[in-house]
């Protein structure tokens, strides 16, 4: 092979059009960022921002050492927090199960009316954080554990409902057909054909949600819904930072333990 | 060109992969490295450019001892050694051209490679290599759009883009069908003889090795147990390398391969005209 | 087991001390809230709502951009196959801290440090984004096809070149997908952290509920739901488009 051909010396890894698009894309992102930044910081008081390191140092020095004796006052709120999470999860499950069956394409009695309603319930529950639910419920039924439990339940509907209805839609149709072939009624098909198939998923989802709910219930008290958050709010209001650090460490420990339990349980289920 | 002196490798698990390998590769020679799986072929090849750190021994490339180099010196020396991989190891989401140019990474500063602004001579050389391996029209395709044989050709072009003084080839045909395997082997040997490049080729396919290699080195349990020209690879020699296995089974399908080979030769002849 | 469950439920329900008179009184309010939700009032507090919404949206975007930008080096540092041991441990601890603390708690601290307003919210969400993106990015990098990185390394490429040529092409599509997903999450969170003073639509909502203006609160909740739905569909569409 004699080399008489000359080869191009120019190569670019994008076509001119592609390069232009890439540049335009980046430019648009930067412009959007700058614009958003301007709007966001319109009302920022920069003196406060400059003061932040000093504030941080101040808070830090007040937080340490933690006031450990305060721990003895926290066991009752911790128990409340666990109850909010657990009872809330149970309540959420009771409400989520029917919603899931209405939302799953293969079990819903009416695709045109009930399914969209069920889906809307799921979306609404998922978009609104439990803290917002708690805020509303405290305003409506007054502060206390009940508001927290209901907030957690309402929040759990969306999560459990969504995962459960996806599990229902993924069930094996052959088993369902086999059960309906025996002449079973609709409820019997549900009971014998579908429920056994989704049981593992159901327990997995429930335990997973319980774990998340423990996390969320620790802070619900900030808006008056009971539990550890209530103590946190109290300590913050009185600027008792050394108590705040005790509460935060307790919250952290609770979250770690609940995560460990939920991982164990889910592992045992699989 | 390359001299290995007492090269040994013991893994952290305590497995000895290589023990006291001494080997010399003169300029322009193509060596086939054969041996059962687990004999240390892959380790040997990776020790030479220190993708695997050897435990002891010398690796002389020219007059540089690769085994004793620091990080940045090693990078400099790696440019001299082109490597071709079993599963092609192309960066799938980059274009063919980017893959070939990645052979130049050791020569260009980071900003150039980041902006994909390679020097004109590099680009020219890359196009020339793509033409040599017959993939000119695929230059701007993504690597994962190519077939196995085409990908291995890109792999070869990438290794050659480094302007290497030595090629390390790790099972180049293991994921290819017999016909394509032969085409790739032929391309490799042609390129090596064109450039006077020495090469070490790991190969599990004994007939293929006998057909294409100038010299065969047999490895067993990390030791060199055979070293000689292909026609010295007798039944006894194979038994020392592979043990009492029915290595004849490896020769099965030879006929089919011969046909493929003949066809490939015909095609090459057409191409050469 | 079953007895344990019954005993627990008994004990737990016993601690729920409900003031039924208060609940009964609240039912009327609940009814008003439901009515407010069904007949939302967008107009009378529109100035506050639009202010809160624009704060939330801008906070969401800026914090996602900044958070992702910081996450990339941390994520690379937290990948075992790219970073030296000590860098790995530092980056993994940053991630662990960011993930362990909930947004609302971080927000409390940032509000205390930087004063009320969306700037504290921006910082909170950026910090939370780091824990999310950096962890998933690091896990992704640890799962790349090593042979591609090996091949690039064998050409004599430097560490930066290996990252740019072998790692980046493999993790980029998922990184973009995750960033878009995080944009979605950040908006939801921006509605919450306003409750503790970090600006955004959450602050507006908090005010509306404090004033018992349930029709405005209903309007705000509907806006939140609508925006979440739009971002959810938008982000899944965008992710499909970018694949």
From TrEMBL, chain A:
Question: Which Gene3D superfamilies does UniProt cross-reference here?
Answer: MetI-like
GO cellular component terms listed in the entry, alphabetical order: plasma membrane
Subcellular location per UniProt equals: Cell membrane
Coiled-coil annotated residue ranges, if any: none
- Annotated transmembrane regions: 20-40, 84-104, 111-128, 134-154, 240-261
Keywords attached to this Swiss-Prot or TrEMBL record, sorted alphabetically, are: Cell membrane, Membrane, Transmembrane, Transmembrane helix, Transport
Q: Which membrane topology describes this protein?
A: Multi-pass membrane protein
Q: List residues of the ABC transmembrane type-1 domain.
A: 78-262
Fetch the Pfam families from UniProt: BPD_transp_1
Q: Which InterPro entries match?
A: MetI-like, MetI-like_sf, PhnE/PtxC
Q: Which GO terms describe its molecular function?
A: ABC-type phosphonate transporter activity
Please report which protein family the annotation says this sequence is part of.
Answer: Belongs to the binding-protein-dependent transport system permease family.
Query: What name does the UniProt record give this protein?
Result: Phosphonate ABC transporter, permease protein PhnE
Classification of source organism: Bacteria, Pseudomonadati, Pseudomonadota, Alphaproteobacteria, Rhodobacterales
Gene symbol? Answer: phnE
From TrEMBL, chain B:
Report one GO cellular component: membrane
The protein's matches in Gene3D superfamilies, at most eight in alphabetical order, are given as: P-loop containing nucleotide triphosphate hydrolases (3.40.50.300)
Highest taxon, organism lineage: Bacteria
Q: Which CDD domains match?
A: ABC_PhnC_transporter (cd03256)
Q: Which SUPFAM superfamilies match?
A: P-loop containing nucleoside triphosphate hydrolases (SSF52540)
Q: Which UniProt keywords apply?
A: ATP-binding, Cell membrane, Membrane, Nucleotide-binding, Translocase, Transport
Q: Give the matching InterPro entries.
A: AAA+_ATPase, ABC_transporter-like_ATP-bd, ABC_transporter-like_CS, ABC_transpr_PhnC, MetN_ABC_transporter-like, P-loop_NTPase
Q: Name one Pfam family in it.
A: ABC_tran
Domain ABC transporter, by residue range, is 2-246
Q: Name one GO molecular function term.
A: ATP hydrolysis activity
| NCBIfam families named in the record | ABC_phnC
Q: What is this protein called?
A: Phosphonate ABC transporter ATP-binding protein
Species of the source = Pararhodobacter oceanensis
Q: Name the gene.
A: phnC
């Amino acid at each position: 092979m004699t080399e008489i051909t000359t080869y191009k010396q120019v190569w670019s890894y994008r076509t001119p059009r592609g390069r232009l698009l890439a540049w335009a894309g980046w430019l648009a992102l930067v412009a959007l960022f700058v614009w958003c930044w301007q709007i966001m910081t319109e009302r920022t008081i920069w003196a406060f921002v400059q003061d932040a390191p000093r504030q941080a140092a101040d808070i830090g020095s007040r937080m340490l050492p933690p006031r450990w004796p305060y721990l003895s006052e926290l066991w009752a709120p911790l128990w409340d927090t666990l109850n909010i999470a657990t009872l809330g999860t149970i309540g959420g499950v009771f409400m989520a199960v029917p919603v899931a069956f209405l939302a799953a394409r293969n079990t819903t009695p009416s695709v045109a009316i009930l399914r969209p309603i069920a889906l809307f319930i799921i979306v609404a529950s998922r978009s609104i954080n439990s803290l917002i639910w708690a805020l509303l419920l405290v305003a409506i039924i007054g502060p206390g554990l009940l508001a927290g439990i209901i907030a957690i339940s309402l929040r759990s509907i969306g999560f459990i409902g969504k995962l459960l209805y996806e599990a229902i839609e993924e069930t094996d149709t052959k088993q369902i057909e086999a059960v309906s072939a025996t002449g079973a009624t609709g409820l019997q098909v549900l009971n014998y054909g579908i429920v056994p198939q989704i049981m593992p998923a159901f327990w997995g989802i429930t335990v997973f949600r319980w774990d998340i709910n423990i996390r969320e219930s620790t802070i619900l008290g900030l808006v008056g819904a009971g539990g550890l958050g209530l103590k946190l709010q109290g300590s913050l209001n009185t600027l008792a930072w050394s108590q705040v650090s005790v509460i935060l460490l307790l919250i952290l420990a609770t979250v770690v333990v609940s995560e460990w339990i939920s991982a164990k349980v889910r592992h045992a289920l699989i | 060109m390359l001299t290995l002196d007492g090269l040994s490798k013991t893994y952290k698990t305590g497995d000895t992969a290589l023990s006291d390998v001494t080997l010399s590769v003169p300029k322009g020679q193509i060596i086939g490295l054969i041996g059962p799986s687990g004999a240390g072929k892959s380790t040997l090849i990776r020790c030479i450019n220190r993708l695997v750190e050897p435990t002891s021994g010398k690796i002389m490339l020219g007059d540089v001892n690769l085994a004793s180099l620091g990080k940045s010196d090693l990078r400099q020396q790696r440019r001299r050694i082109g490597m071709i991989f079993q599963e092609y190891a192309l960066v799938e989401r980059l274009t063919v051209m980017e893959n070939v140019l990645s052979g130049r990474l050791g020569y260009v500063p980071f900003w150039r490679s980041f902006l994909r602004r390679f020097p004109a001579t590099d680009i020219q050389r890359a196009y020339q290599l793509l033409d040599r391996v017959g993939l000119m029209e695929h230059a701007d395709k993504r690597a994962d759009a190519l077939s196995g044989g085409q990908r291995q050709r890109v792999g070869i072009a990438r290794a050659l883009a480094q302007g290497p003084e030595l090629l390390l080839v790790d099972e180049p045909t293991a994921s290819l069908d017999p016909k394509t395997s032969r085409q790739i082997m032929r391309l490799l040997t042609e390129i090596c003889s064109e450039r006077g490049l020495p090469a070490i080729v790991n190969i599990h396919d004994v007939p293929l090795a006998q057909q294409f290699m100038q010299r065969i080195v047999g490895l067993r349990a990390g030791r060199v147990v055979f070293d000689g020209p292909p026609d010295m690879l007798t039944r006894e020699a194979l038994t020392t390398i592979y043990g009492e296995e029915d290595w004849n089974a490896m020769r099965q399908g030879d006929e089919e391969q011969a046909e493929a080979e003949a066809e490939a030769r015909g095609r090459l002849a057409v191409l050469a005209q | 087991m079953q007895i344990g469950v019954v005993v627990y439920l008994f004990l737990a329900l016993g601690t729920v001390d409900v003031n039924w008179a208060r609940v009964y009184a609240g039912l009327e309010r609940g009814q008003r809230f439901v009515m407010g939700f069904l007949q939302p009032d967008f107009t009378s507090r529109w100035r506050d709502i639009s202010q809160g919404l624009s704060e939330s949206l801008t906070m969401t975007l800026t914090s996602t951009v900044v958070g992702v930008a910081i996450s990339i080096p941390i994520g690379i540092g937290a990948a075992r196959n790219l970073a030296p041991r000590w860098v790995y441990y530092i980056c993994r601890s940053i991630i662990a801290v960011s993930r362990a603390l909930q947004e609302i708690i971080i927000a409390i601290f940032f509000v205390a440090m930087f004063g009320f307003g969306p700037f504290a919210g921006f910082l909170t969400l950026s910090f939370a984004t780091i824990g999310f993106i950096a962890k998933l990015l690091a896990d992704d990098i640890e799962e790349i096809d090593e042979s591609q990185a090996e091949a690039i390394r064998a050409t004599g490429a430097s560490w930066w070149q290996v990252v740019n040529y072998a790692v980046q092409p493999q993790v980029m599509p998922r990184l973009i997908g995750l960033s878009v997903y995080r944009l979605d999450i950040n908006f939801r969170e921006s509605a919450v952290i306003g409750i503790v003073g970090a600006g955004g639509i959450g602050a507006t909502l908090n005010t509306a509920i404090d004033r018992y203006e349930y029709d405005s609160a209903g309007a705000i909740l509907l806006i939140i739901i609508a925006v979440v739905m739009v971002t959810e569909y938008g982000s899944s569409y965008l992710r499909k488009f970018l694949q």
